[in-house]
Design goal:
Shape: globular
Oligomer: single chain
Radius of gyration: 18 Å
Number of domains: 1
CATH superfamily: Nucleoside phosphorylase domain
Distance between the termini: 35 Å
Structural class: alpha/beta
CATH class: Alpha Beta
Strand content: 15-25%
Order of helices and strands: EEEEHEEEHEHEHEH
CATH topology: Rossmann fold
Number of helices: 5
Helix content: 10-25%
CATH architecture: 3-Layer(aba) Sandwich
Length: 279
C-alpha cells in the first residue's frame, strides 16, 4: 500500500469520484488502492465494470483498458463506454498509462514520457460522442489535447520522487493490433512522432469532449520496427513493463496525492459554446 490511508465509507452506489486511472498493459493492480470494491455503470455504449477504492483521502476509480485478463485488443476497446462511465461517476481528472514503442533515439526502453501531442492513424474507431441526431455535431478544440495542469502535477511528482521523465512527446496512435512496419515508422518519425502506440486515440479526444482533465504518461517498452535491432515481440513489451511497473505506480499515486479536485480548469469548459457536455 502507498502512504497512509484514512477510511472513507461508501454509501450504496451514490459515490462522487473525482479521480480515475485508466491502466494500460501491466498496470492492472487494484492493490494500489485501499478499501477496493467493484462497480458497474450502464452507458449508451454498453456496460462498464470498474473498481473503486481509496488513496490519500480520495475516492479513485480504476478501469483496466484491456480488461482484467488483457483480453480486449486495442481496436475493440469500448472507449466511449469507458469515458462515459467515468463522467457519470463524477470523475473530473483522469490519469492514463500507455505502453509505447519509441521513434526517438533519446527515448529508450524503460523511459517515461508525458505526452503533449498526438498524431491519429487509427482507421475504424468512432472518435466522438457527437454523431449528429439528437446529440448534434460538435467540433472540439484539441490545441492542447492533454491537460496542462495534470501534466505539471505529474512532472512535479516525478521530480520529487526521483523518477526521470521526458516532459513532452508526440504519440502516434495506430490501429493495431499488429505492430508497425519499418516504412510506417520512418514516415511517422518524419511527421514529428516520438512514440507509437495503439490506445491513446480516441480516448484523449473523448475525454476532452466530456470536459474532463486527462493526462497520459507513457512507458517506452522498446524501439519501434526498423529502429530495433531485432523483430518486435509482445513478450518484450511485457518484460519491460514488469521491470518498471512499480515505478509507474509510484509516479501515478504520487501525482494523485497532489491533485486538488476543487480546482477548476479550462478542460472542464471545453464545450462551453455548445452548452457543455450532457450525459
Amino acid at each position: 500500500m502507498y502512504g497512509n490511508m484514512r477510511v472513507i465509507m461508501y454509501k450504496g452506489g451514490d459515490i462522487m469520484i473525482k479521480i480515475a486511472i485508466i491502466g494500460g498493459t501491466g498496470l492492472y493492480d487494484p492493490r494500489i488502492l485501499d478499501n477496493v470494491r467493484d462497480g458497474t455503470v450502464v452507458t449508451p455504449y454498453g456496460e462498464v465494470t470498474y473498481k473503486v477504492g481509496e488513496f490519500s483521502g480520495q475516492a479513485v476509480a480504476f478501469i483496466p483498458r484491456h480488461g482484467s485478463a488483457h483480453s480486449i485488443p486495442p481496436h475493440l476497446i469500448n472507449y466511449r463506454a469507458n469515458i462515459w462511465a467515468l463522467k457519470k461517476l463524477g470523475v473530473t481528472n483522469v490519469i492514463a498509462s500507455t505502453a509505447v514503442g519509441s521513434l526517438n533515439p533519446k527515448m529508450g526502453g524503460g523511459d517515461f514520457v508525458l505526452v503533449d501531442q498526438f498524431l491519429d492513424f487509427t482507421k475504424s474507431r468512432v472518435a466522438t460522442f457527437y454523431d449528429g441526431g439528437d446529440r448534434g455535431v460538435v467540433h472540439v478544440d484539441v490545441t492542447q489535447p492533454y491537460c496542462s495542469n495534470l501534466r505539471a502535477i505529474l512532472l512535479n511528482a516525478a521530480q520529487e520522487i526521483g523518477i526521470p521523465i521526458h516532459a513532452s512527446g508526440t504519440y502516434v496512435c495506430t490501429e493495431g493490433p499488429r505492430f508497425e512496419t519499418p516504412a510506417e515508422i520512418k514516415a511517422y518519425a518524419k511527421l514529428g512522432g516520438d512514440l507509437v502506440g495503439m490506445t491513446n486515440v480516441p480516448e484523449v479526444v473523448l475525454a476532452r469532449e466530456a470536459e474532463m482533465c486527462y493526462v497520459t504518461v507513457s512507458m517506452v517498452t522498446n524501439f519501434a520496427a526498423g529502429i530495433s535491432p531485432h523483430p518486435l515481440t509482445h513478450g518484450e513489451v511485457l518484460e519491460t513493463m514488469a521491470a518498471n511497473t512499480e515505478k509507474i505506480k509510484r509516479l501515478i499515486m504520487a501525482a494523485i496525492a497532489k491533485i486538488d479536485t476543487k480546482e477548476d480548469c479550462a478542460c472542464r469548459h471545453a464545450l462551453a459554446e455548445y452548452g457543455g457536455f450532457k450525459l
